[in-house]
Amino acid sequence: MELLKKALEFQKRKMTHMTTSDKVSASREAKSLVLRINEIYKKTRDPYLMDIMKQITEKKQKIDRRIKGVIQV
Q: For tag attachment on the chain, is the N or C end more exposed, with fewer CB atoms within 10 Å?
């Protein structure tokens, strides 16, 4: 399960002091991870995979907000 290792690594990665280019690439990476995990989730319906997708999506949304420059709580 190399995909899960990449997902956990993405979750642990610090998102401070990133350039706009870094933010965009991190956002794309998060989207890719979620879509690939979702393909596995559709077959297995494992709640652990759903939790991972939710956490990655939450982090992606924070990154996207910073890219757009919108401050939301």
A: C
